[in-house]
Amino acid sequence: MNFKEIIFSNIYKIPSAFGLDLSDYSIKVAQLEKRGRFFQLKNYNRVSIPEEVIVGGVIKKEDRLIGIIKKAITAVKGESIKTPYAICSLPEQHGFIKIIQLPIMKLEEVNKAIKWEAEANIPLSLDEAYLSWQIIPSKKSFDHLDVLITATPKNLVDKYLEVLKVANIEPVVFEIESVATARSLIKNEFSPKSVLIIDLGYSRTSFIIFAGNSIRFTSSISSVSNKEMLEGIGKKLNVTLKEAQLSKFKIGLEKKGKEGKIFNALLPFMTKLIEKIKDCISFHQEYSQQDKECEGNISEIILCGGGSHLRGLPEYLSSRLNIPVKLGNPWVNIPYSKNKLPAIPYDESPAYATVLGLALRGTEIK
């Protein structure tokens, strides 16, 4: 996605940039290198973040976070990171993404029009936000321009920038998580039909509707999360979160014999998740009346994030919603030579969707 982005570096030509995905409970790092028509995963890492260091996407303990970031960078699996430049994520819950429609106009007129439309559509003062926008190509709308605008609070972004610079990282671009996630999961960044991406994170779940060449809608909630899922299993079986994680992988939504206890433990979580998905589907049906790119029903659901590793989840959701559901493949836009398979195991790859999307953006920096 060729955004008019939040760019903080004065360096216009840099050799490469790695992806850096920061969340409340973990840091993920990944770096890709393009060699001809193939990519190589040069390195990757995941390091846990203790509670209270980042809370709800807001940095609370800067010194501790700086140390953890340095550890994540220096202890990568694979080649060492030799560049300070990074494409960095911003927390989904603090970003605002909206498609607006403008009359057909010259490109130089868009900047001025964006300001007025943003003031009406973004719940932030423009003086207190960083604003980005992108004209979305459309094969269905010829009487207007579709423009995707994003906004993030300046005080939040500036704090991330300050911490990263102290950690000797030079952020080149900041992206809201959903933008990077869609880049890694939607083949060629285009879908002729509407797709719902569900990112089941440790502390929250994000819902992303993608159609045509762009994200059309995002929502992020903390009431449904991988943490809630694991705690439900742990409480029902009286086991640790680590043991609950293992049960999630090996047994999941299996109903037979003793395994039925885990299914019963997960049932309240699944009920809540399905309710939220239905809310997104209802919104899409209403929104599609205004947006021609979203015409028709949700064609499929793509799962990613750590919570997507629940055994039997795609099949269960598909049977309940009558919509095809699959695990996301974050390698779909990262072709690689057959003798250079990714170092990240395929069954773990959906949890790396966001950072691989950031790393993919890093290969495009010129």
Word description of this protein:
This protein is α+β, with helices and mostly antiparallel strands and 366 residues long. It has helices at 62-74, 107-121, 154-166, 177-185, 226-237, 241-250, 260-287, 313-321, 353-362, and strands spanning 6-7, 18-22, 26-35, 38-48, 54-55, 58-59, 77-78, 85-90, 96-103, 129-136, 144-153, 170-176, 191-200, 205-212, 214-221, 300-304, 325-327. The protein has a 7-stranded mixed sheet with strand order 1-12-8-2-3-4-7, sandwiched between helices. The longest helix is centred in the last third of the chain and has 28 residues, at 260-287.
Explain the layout of strands and helices:
Blueprint lengths: L5 E2 L10 E5 L3 E10 L2 E11 L5 E2 L2 E2 L2 H13 L2 E2 L6 E6 L5 E8 L3 H15 L7 E8 L7 E10 H13 L3 E7 H9 L5 E10 L4 E8 L1 E8 L4 H12 L3 H10 L9 H28 L12 E5 L8 H9 L3 E3 L25 H10 L4
Parallel strand pairs: 2-8, 8-12, 13-16, 16-17
Antiparallel strand pairs: 1-12, 2-3, 3-4, 4-7, 5-6, 9-11, 10-11, 13-14, 14-15
Helix pairs in contact: 4-9, 5-6, 5-7
